[in-house]
């Protein structure tokens, strides 16, 4: 254990952030997609409440473990929002994005071999009974709500206290209320990994557009609160 602690202490700040984002994103994506795969494996026994509750737990764990290390992004859309509010620099952007994608891919591989190849590994699917503008707007709104809660928590509490519950809670609520329309990803990495490994990539355009638009709108709206400090 002492050798592990010594190794951690020798890491640079960016290396610690990278490691935190890989592990944190792994946890979030494992809980988010794994819950879908488990529910499908057992014929829908657990249902939407379980699918919404699991990522709430995963996000809360990630925030409490790594909030002080990397600000607990675990999400490329959140990272872009933090870039806009200048919580991270342009130089750090590839560090975060790379870590998040790697963590998500590792999580989907883990889900595939630990739980099984059900439900396209938990890939997000929009409900095309609704129009594309409605689906896009719902995904944008869900991501906006997530970014709004994150920046509110950062501005008021600095990722302390009930921050993990608040951020995880909005993820769970968004999934519970909006997954039946847009899939409620809110996270491009969470959508990318299972889609790539299962081969269902046709809907990735939605999760790599609406999510970034949603987080960017909120970050631009609140940017002055952070940049002026």
Structural overview:
- The protein is an all-alpha fold and 229 residues long.
- The chain is 75% helix and 0% strand.
- It contains 10 helices and no strands.
- The chain is globular.
- The model has no long low-confidence stretch (mean pLDDT 94).
What topology does this entry show?
Layout: H1 2-10, H2 13-41, H3 47-70, H4 76-84, H5 93-114, H6 132-156, H7 163-182, H8 188-198, H9 204-207, H10 210-227
User: End-to-end span in angstroms?
Assistant: 40 Å
Helix count, per DSSP? 10
SSE class: mainly alpha
Strand content bin: under 5%
Total strands: 0
- Roughly how much helix do the residues carry, as a percent range? over 70%
